[in-house]
Design goal:
Rossmann fold; 28 helices
C-alpha cells in the first residue's frame, strides 16, 4: 500500500540481513508505557526515528518531541504531510514513510504486531526485519509477537512489561446506564451515528472518532472529549490503535466486523486492543457490552473475558511478507516479484493489497501498459499505483483515478495550475457530514500527491494549499459532527450536576430566563419552570429534573416577594376566581365554611416549595382576601349575621338567607313579605333591605364590587351561573335575547334589562302620577325612561310587570286631522295566583275605530305617545 522512501538495494533474504547496535523487543498489553519509553530513548540519542501506525499518533508524538528538542531539530514525515527542517535529527514518521537512513542512532517501530495485519502487515514486517538504528533498535508491540521476534530476529532482547492498571469485565449495560468517561465502540459508520444520536438524547452528546475522518477532525473530536465538554466517545475500532484517551469504561456495541472480505467475530487480541483503552497509567478500567440492542446483544464468552483480563492470547504463528525491493525491469517482472513466495516459513503471502490490485488491473490495459517502458518508468508507475485509496471506493474506482494521474505524470510533472485547480474544486466547506467526508478523502489524495517532489512543481506551495483546504474542511466536519451529536444545553447540565447536583450554577436572567453557565434552559412563569421550547422532547425530562432540584433558592426569594406584596396589598388581583400576582396565577378561590367565607388554594406550582414557606404565603393571601372582600361583602355579611340572630324571627332570617344566596336581589313574589311582622319589617330596613314594587333588594349590594365578589363566590359553590355586570350602566347596551341570562342586579324589561333600583324608581314615578290624578285613568310621560336608555317597548313591558294596563284611545275618524290621543293607563293591583289563573292571562283592548269611505287621511302619528299607542295596539 505504500513504498519505501527511498528504496534500498534488493536482497534475496532480508531476514538474514545483519544489524548494528542492540535490538530490544519491548512487548506487553496496552497501557504499559511502551511508547513513552521509546520517546525517552529517542531523545536520549543524538538522532533517531520512530515509525507509527497512524499519522495522528505520529503528529501527537511530534508535538511532544518538539517541546523537548525544539521544532528546528524535529521532522514529521507522513504520506500527506512533511515537516522537514534542514538539520532535523529526530524523525517521527508513519511506518510506510520511514526513511532508510543507516546514520540514525536510534530506530523504533510501534505496534509491530501489525505485521500480522492482512492489509498493511507486509509494511510492518519489512520494518521489523530491516529498520535498524546505529546504536539501538526498539520493537514495540503485543506479547503475541514474541515467538515471531525470537524466530526472525534472534539477536533481539525480549522485555515484557506488565500493564500499569487492571482491566475488569463488568457485563452488559444499557446505553442510558453507561457511566461518564466511557467509549462506545461500533463497527460501522451507521452504528456509530445511531449510538452518538442516542447519547445526544440521553447524556447531551458524544465525540465521534472514525477512520474515515481526517486526522484534524479526529483531533478536534478527541480534544472535545478530553476537555470534558462531552463525557462520551463513540468510535470504530480505530480507537484501539495508539490514541491516548482518558477512558474509564469501554462498551462494545458489537463483537463482529466486516474485514473487507467477510463478516467475522473479533479475535481476542483485537478485543483486548480496544478494551485496553479503558484505564490509563495507574487508573483501573472496565469493559463490557451494550444491552438492549434489539435481541442481538453482544456477549463475551467466559474464555474471552479471561483472556482479556489476564492478557493471555494465542501467539502469532506467521507474519505477512511481500518483497519490499522488487525489480523494475518490466511490469511483468515487478508483478512477479511482488507475488513471490516468502523466503521463510514464519512468513506468509498477504491477501492482494490495493496497490498490487491496481497495478495488475492497469497492466492488463494496453493503453496504459503501452506507456510504461523502461525501468525508470516502471518504478515511477509503481509509485503512482501505491497512492493510498483514501476514498475507500475499491480497486476498480481507485484504478481509474490512478490511470488518469499516470496520464498526467508520465510526461514529467503535474503543473502548478492543474494541481491548484484540482485543490480549489474541493475547497467548499458546505454540505452534510457524508459530503464533507468525501471531500476530505479527496483532498487527502491531493495532499499525498503534492508531497512528492518528483510529481509536482512548486511542491511546497501546493502542499500548503492542500493542507489549508483540508484544515477548512476538517473544521467544517467537526462543526457538523458537534452540531448533530452534541446538545450543549444537556451537556452543561450533565457535566455540572454530576454526583452533587447542588453545585449546578443556576441563575435568573432577564424576563425570568433560567440560565446554567449562561446557557438558557427555560424560564419561570410565576412559580412554574417551563423548559426552553427549543429543547427537544427527549431533553425535557432531564431539564425539568435539573431545574426542580436547583431552583428552590430562586423560588424562595420570589415567594418572599409574594408574601410581602400580599401583606401590603400590592400587585394582587382577583379575577375569574383566581388570584393573580404580577399577571401570574398564584391561587384560586375554594369553598369555605359558608358562601361569604371563602378560602384560597395555592397554585399547584407552589406545592413543590417547603411547607413552612407555603404556610406563610397561604396565611398572607388569606388575610389579603378577607381584607379585599370585606368592604364588597359587608352588606351581605350583615344579612348573614341576621340569619344567626334568634331575635330576628324565622321569617326575617329566611328572607335574609334568601337574599344572601341570591346576591342581594330577589323578586317580590318570592320574598313572602306577608309573613313579616311590622317589627321585622323595621329590622329589615335597618339591615339595608328595600322592598320595592317588583323586587326586594339591598341597594348597597348593587355596586360593581359587591356584585363581582358574590358572582365569584357563587361560581365556587356551584350556584346558578349568573354573570356579573360589566359596570353600573342603568340599562344594558343592546338587546337581551330571549333565553339569555340577565346579569345579577338587573330585571328584564321586554327586549332590554334595567337595574332593579332604577326599575323601582320608574314604577314609583308611575304610582306618583297615578296618585296625583283624580281619575281612574291617567297619562304617563315616558321621558324619564327614555333618559335612562329604555325603549318605549321596554318601558311598557316594565309597567305591565308592575300591574299597569294601558287603554288605547279611539283612532281619528276619516277626514279628521291632528295628533293621536296618548294611551291612558290604569293600575290594577296584582291578584292572587288562583284568581289570576281563573281570569286568564290575556287583556282585551278596545276595537279600532273605522273611518268612512272617501274621507281625508288622518295625519301621521309622531312622538313618544304615538309610538306607545302603536305598540299597545
Amino acid at each position: 500500500m505504500a513504498n519505501r522512501v527511498p528504496a534500498s538495494p534488493r536482497v534475496t533474504s532480508s531476514a538474514n540481513r545483519p544489524s548494528s547496535g542492540s535490538v530490544k523487543a519491548v512487548l506487553g498489553p496496552t497501557n504499559t508505557g511502551k511508547t513513552h519509553l521509546a520517546i525517552e530513548r529517542l531523545c536520549a540519542h543524538s538522532s533517531g526515528a520512530i515509525g507509527f501506525p497512524l499519522r495522528l499518533l505520529a503528529r501527537e508524538v511530534y508535538d511532544r518531541v518538539c517541546a523537548i528538542k525544539g521544532p528546528a531539530q524535529v521532522a514529521l514525515i507522513t504520506g500527506e504531510e512533511r515537516i522537514e527542517p534542514k538539520d532535523a535529527r529526530w524523525l517521527l514518521c508513519t511506518a510506510e514513510a520511514m526513511p532508510a537512513r543507516p546514520d540514525l542512532a536510534f530506530v523504533a517501530l510501534d505496534e509491530a504486531q501489525l505485521s500480522a495485519d492482512p492489509e498493511r502487515g507486509h509494511i510492518f514486517t519489512d520494518r521489523l526485519l530491516h529498520a535498524r538504528g546505529r546504536e539501538e533498535t526498539m520493537l514495540l508491540g503485543s506479547a503475541t509477537l514474541e515467538p515471531m521476534v525470537k524466530a526472525l530476529v534472534p539477536q533481539a532482547e525480549v522485555v515484557t512489561r506488565p500493564r500499569f492498571s487492571t482491566l475488569s469485565h463488568v457485563g452488559a449495560k444499557k446505553l442510558s446506564r453507561i457511566p461518564p468517561r466511557s467509549a462506545i465502540v461500533a463497527f460501522s459508520a451507521e452504528q456509530v451515528y445511531v449510538m452518538a444520536e442516542m447519547l445526544r438524547r440521553f447524556r447531551g452528546g458524544a465525540a465521534v472518532v472514525m477512520g474515515a475522518l481526517s486526522p484534524q477532525t479526529r483531533n478536534a473530536q478527541v480534544a472535545m472529549y478530553q476537555s470534558g465538554e462531552v463525557d462520551y466517545l463513540v468510535a470504530t475500532d480505530a480507537v484501539g490503535m495508539g490514541l491516548n484517551l482518558d477512558v474509564e469504561h469501554v462498551a462494545f456495541a458489537g463483537l463482529s466486523k466486516y474485514d473487507g472480505h467477510r463478516h467475522r467475530r473479533l479475535t481476542t487480541a483485537e478485543m483486548a486492543q480496544i478494551a485496553g483503552r479503558a484505564g490509563r497509567h495507574h487508573k483501573d478500567g472496565t469493559f463490557g457490552t451494550l444491552a438492549g440492542t434489539g435481541g442481538r446483544d453482544p456477549e463475551f464468552t467466559d474464555e474471552e473475558v479471561y483472556a482479556i483480563e489476564e492478557h493471555r492470547f494465542p501467539p502469532l504463528t506467521r507474519l505477512f511478507w511481500r518483497e519490499a525491493e522488487p525489480r523494475f525491469d518490466t511490469l511483468a517482472t515487478l508483478i512477479a516479484d511482488l507475488e513471490s513466495p516468502p523466503p521463510r516459513p514464519e512468513l506468509a503471502t498477504p491477501p492482494e493489497a490495493i496497490d498490487l490490485a491496481v497495478l495488475r488491473r492497469l497492466a492488463e490495459e494496453p493503453d496504459v501498459a503501452g506507456t510504461v517502458r523502461g525501468s525508470r518508468n516502471v518504478e515511477r508507475f509503481w509509485h503512482v499505483c501505491s497512492l493510498p485509496d483514501f476514498r475507500q471506493q475499491g480497486a476498480e474506482t481507485h484504478a481509474r483515478f490512478v490511470a488518469r494521474l499516470w496520464q498526467d505524470l508520465r510526461g514529467g510533472y503535474l503543473g502548478a495550475d492543474y494541481v491548484a485547480q484540482a485543490i480549489a474544486q474541493l475547497d467548499n466547506p458546505s454540505g452534510d457530514i457524508d459530503t464533507l467526508q468525501g471531500r476530505i478523502s479527496a483532498i487527502r489524495s491531493w495532499s499525498y500527491i503534492a508531497q512528492r517532489p518528483d510529481w509536482v512543481l512548486a511542491r511546497d506551495e501546493m502542499a500548503a494549499r492542500a493542507r489549508a483546504v483540508e484544515t477548512r474542511l476538517s473544521d467544517a466536519l467537526h462543526g457538523r459532527l458537534t452540531e448533530r451529536f452534541v446538545n450543549r444545553r444537556t451537556t452543561v447540565l450533565m457535566r455540572k450536576a454530576g454526583a452533587d447536583a447542588s453545585l449546578l450554577p443556576v441563575r435568573l436572567g432577564e424576563n425570568g430566563a433560567v440560565l446554567v453557565d449562561d446557557e438558557p434552559i427555560g424560564h419561570l412563569e410565576g412559580f412554574r419552570f417551563v423548559v426552553d421550547p427549543l429543547a427537544r422532547a427527549t431533553d425535557r425530562k432531564l431539564l425539568l429534573a435539573a431545574a426542580e432540584r436547583h431552583l428552590p433558592g430562586l423560588l424562595a426569594a420570589r415567594l418572599a416577594e409574594l408574601a410581602d406584596d400580599a401583606r401590603a396589598g400590592r400587585d394582587l388581583v382577583l379575577h375569574d376566581g383566581q388570584v393573580h400576582w404580577r399577571d401570574m396565577p398564584v391561587a384560586r378561590l375554594a369553598k369555605g365554611r359558608s358562601l361569604l367565607e371563602p378560602r384560597l388554594m395555592l397554585d399547584p406550582a407552589l406545592d413543590r416549595l417547603p411547607p413552612a414557606e407555603r404556610e406563610r404565603v397561604q396565611a398572607a393571601l388569606n388575610a389579603w382576601l378577607l381584607h379585599s372582600m370585606a368592604a364588597a361583602l359587608r352588606p351581605l355579611r350583615r344579612l348573614a349575621d341576621a340569619t344567626r340572630d334568634p331575635d330576628a324571627g324565622a321569617a326575617l332570617r329566611a328572607l335574609a338567607l334568601h337574599l344572601v344566596e341570591a346576591g342581594g336581589t330577589i323578586p317580590r313574589e318570592s320574598a313572602r313579605l306577608e309573613d313579616l311582622t311590622p317589627a321585622q319589617r323595621t329590622m329589615a330596613r335597618k339591615l339595608g333591605i328595600q322592598v320595592g314594587a317588583l323586587d326586594v333588594f339591598v341597594p348597597a349590594a348593587l355596586r360593581t364590587a359587591p356584585l363581582a365578589a358574590w358572582c365569584a363566590l357563587a361560581r365556587v359553590w356551584g350556584l346558578a351561573a349568573v354573570p356579573p355586570p360589566a359596570g353600573l350602566a342603568p340599562v344594558l347596551a343592546g338587546p337581551v335575547l330571549a333565553g339569555q341570562t340577565v346579569p345579577l342586579g338587573y330585571r328584564r324589561a321586554g327586549p332590554q334589562a334595567l337595574r332593579v333600583d332604577l326599575a323601582e324608581r320608574l314604577v314609583h314615578a308611575a304610582h306618583g302620577t297615578r296618585q296625583a290624578t283624580s281619575g281612574r285613568r291617567f297619562v304617563l310621560d315616558p321621558a324619564l325612561a327614555r333618559s335612562m336608555g329604555l325603549t318605549t317597548a321596554a318601558y311598557a313591558a316594565l309597567l305591565r310587570q308592575a300591574g299597569f294596563r294601558a287603554q288605547v284611545p279611539r283612532a281619528l275618524d276619516e277626514g279628521q286631522a291632528g295628533p293621536p290621543a296618548p294611551p291612558l293607563w290604569e293600575w290594577r293591583p296584582p291578584r292572587a295566583p288562583a284568581q289570576a289563573s281563573a281570569r286568564g292571562a290575556g287583556t282585551k283592548t278596545a276595537p279600532r275605530g273605522k273611518g268612512g269611505a272617501g274621507t281625508p287621511a288622518a295625519a301621521p302619528a309622531t312622538g313618544a305617545f304615538a309610538a306607545l299607542a302603536t305598540l299597545l295596539r
